[in-house]
Amino acid sequence: MSKTQKNKATAHHLGLLKAKLAKLRRELLTPTTKGGGGAGEGFDVTKSGDARVGLVGFPSVGKSTLLNKLTGTFSEVASYEFTTLTCIPGVIMYKGAKVQLLDLPGIIEGAKDGKGRGRQVISTARTCNVILIVLDAIKPITHKRLIEKELEGFGIRLNKTPPNMTFRRKEKGGINFTSTVANTHLDLDTVKAICSEYRIHNADVSLRFDATADDLIDVIEGSRIYMPCIYVVNKIDQITVEELDILDKLPHYCPISAHLEWNLDGLLEMVWEYLDLCRLYTKPKGLNPDYEDPVILSSKRKTVEDFCNQIHKDMAKQFKYALVWGSSVKHKPQRVGKVCILQPLSCYTVSFLALIRKISAGA
User: Fold this and answer.
1) β-bridge mates for residue 157, sequence order
2) Cβ neighbour number for residue 339 with a 10 Å cutoff
3) Could you tell me if 177 and 194 are in contact, meaning their C-beta atoms sit under 8 angstroms apart?
4) Under 8 Å CB-to-CB from 61, ≥6 apart: which residues?
5) pLDDT along the chain (363 residues), means of 10
6) Is the pTM of the predicted complex or chain greater than 0.90?
7) Which letter, b or e, does each residue of 107-139 get, where b requires 16 or more Cβ atoms within 10 Å of its Cβ?
8) Is 140 exposed, middle or buried (0-12, 13-18, 19+ CB in 10 A)?
9) Residue 56: enclosing H or E segment and its boundaries?
10) What count of Cα atoms within 13 Å lies in the side-chain half-sphere of residue 221?
């Protein structure tokens, strides 16, 4: 692929090679044969709290020190590499939300291929809501590119949105390719070549943006995870002010010094922004809203039904209606049903006795 010139004549050939490469990588990551030995000690821990954040980086960049400073959890710190050999969890209480922070062992180049138990580390990182890539301020760009390559090889897409395209298999009719915009990377022959590599001969492909062959492969694979990421540049006390000004202008970067506790508040605020959580407050009947204990919901799932399920899974079954105050409704209060989408900083009263008993008991 590196020796092939990129132009319209070679797009078909390059698309076919990329599809083959993606298939071979998937087979390496998910072997079909099962060994007879035990699974071994895993890195994953039980998910708790309202969100999960993972610390990913090379050895000795300050991940354990950052966990100790933010959560108060003890994680061994030493001057040699690979001090942390397993996943160590901690909890951050921030703006009423419980955020689980995972200190993952350091990864090395070739982690996606299994070196240094890298697959287990990256598999745990796939379960997080936000990834913090901790970089050394002395050589941040070098580490950044290597870690991005390892995560991309494992199906994690950092700071990207899912491709705006539709791919639907069908029983007959061949490959139907349509697009609402001008395409500079894909044509019908390239799409047919990629689909044939996956033994797909009948499908509808509809594009709503200028997609590449990699975007189409990601949609066909269906196992890609699109995750927000913050590049945490640690040890900024070892660089000059001019270098710090340059780092501060880069997107998705947050310069800190974990040892000296510089800019940790800014990091927490940035993590909260990337988690994109909503705080919703309960209002017992006849009492003021309880602003001390909010209910935390994801911005992608914030209906009244999601709100009830967050408190207790049986509440949605007994649900009749909810009274809502805030920007979610026109009238205050307003009676709504399960499908009402809730906005942040709103108060709610749900009309069944079980919920009011739980609120009165401080649940």
Assistant:
1) 226
2) 8
3) no
4) 106, 134, 135, 136, 143, 234, 235
5) 79 82 73 46 72 90 88 67 72 91 80 65 87 89 86 88 91 90 87 89 91 90 90 90 85 90 92 90 82 85 86 83 84 86 62 43 46
6) no
7) bbeebbeeebbbbbbbebbbebbbbbbbbbbee
8) buried
9) strand 51-56
10) 27
